[in-house]
Write the structure tokens for this entry.
Amino acid sequence: MPVAETAQTSARVRTGRAAPSGGPSAATPMPADFAALRRQDPELAGVLLAELDRQSSCLQLLAGENFTSAAVLAALGSPLANKYAEGYPGHRHHAGCELVDLAERLAVERATALFGAAHANVQPYSGSSAVLASYAALLVPGDTVLATALPHGGHLTHGSRANFSGRWFQFVGYGTDRDGLIDYDQVRDLARKHRPKAIVCGATAYPRHLDYAAFREIADDVGAYLIADAAHTLGLVAGGAAPSPVPYADVVCATTHKTLRGPRGGLILCGEPLAQRVDRAVYPFSQGGPHMHAIAAKAAAFAEAATPAFSEYAHQVVANARLLAEALCAEGLDVVTGGTDTHLITAGVGPLDIDGRTARGRCAAAGILVDKCPIPYDPRPADGCTGIRLGTAAVTTQGLGEREMPQVAGLIGRALREDRDTGADVAELVRRFPPYPDAYPGR
Ligand SMILES: *Cc1c(COP(=O)(O)O)cnc(C)c1O
């Protein structure tokens, strides 16, 4: 990568002489203007405002969501959204990429520094796109892959028949034991029996830290690649609140919008030997033009994630989740593994004689957002989903702390028992913690 050129171009940006032919300099106001949208298209503006109100008035416990900073939203609403830049910095198919090159280089440099990785690809459109590209980099259709079984917390991209993964590869699923913990003996046995080309560790509904060293050992034992799908946890890793898969996995894929609190998007990290294969698997194999506005927003988020404030945030997310899990046990829920190491909690609602779908509906009716999820070995299987999945990443961003967690659990308990006054108390609580206190002043 031509570093000298980067430094030179940075200097041009700082002096405001970067844009060709006297175009806008840093002093020019950015065109994103919500008032303009309201004037031009009040119907759509109304939807956006209503969504802001909805996000501000719910107790947002969906484990995969968060509230990005105003800086990240500004990057998303920037003219970088206009730019075609197929290829990689310094090697694009289109003209005029010098400045978006800077944005992508910043994102890559910040991601590699943040996670101690040799290489980062910041172009994946989403977590699923990152997983697809990591498979494309290492596998061919028909290869055998060992991954978390879907009823035990695996993601769609880990072998669902409805997804490309299950259609194009031979997935074998490993699961958890009766205590909800990954059964590493089973992983080893299945690996020896099926000799997979890759092992995927990482899940969409697993509350505990993974033993990446154990996965690495098993992968080495059978000569498999190790792919870590850290979609949920990479933000905690950035903040030093969860162990990093980077030293162990051949390829790490992730989202940038869950605990990492950036824009909706994906990220792949790997060592130098696989860098070219990963890059080619993203573009041109599985994607076209990168979303440069999202890449700029990722750069902003990576910078935020490198601050002491973010580390404090990540640790608070976990402290909140631990307290919330404890309090949910007291509300009579079957908290899987009895607690959590992360932002994420799964809990059976069978003891309340309801299933996950009903629980989700009752919570939503009170303004509390949770997902339904399967609970392995639940003795009361109903509809495959006998539990709920929730997370503390978003509420922690809003500023809810350890004082509020027992209160949150109490509200969930009341909502599940259909206490009709719960909604008003939820509204009163969240009113004190607006996610965007300064949004759209004067509307
Ligand atoms: C969320 C998630 C993904 C997919 O992310 P999208 O951005 O929704 O495509 C992939 N893998 C795991 C484990 C996830 O939790």
Q: What stands out?
A: Residues 308-330 form the longest helix (23 residues). Confidence is low (pLDDT under 50) at residues 1-22. The CA atoms of residues 82 and 239 lie 32 Å apart. The pocket of pyridoxal-5'-phosphate is lined by residues 64, 126-128, 131, 155, 157, 202-204, 229, 231-232, 255 (CB under 6 Å).
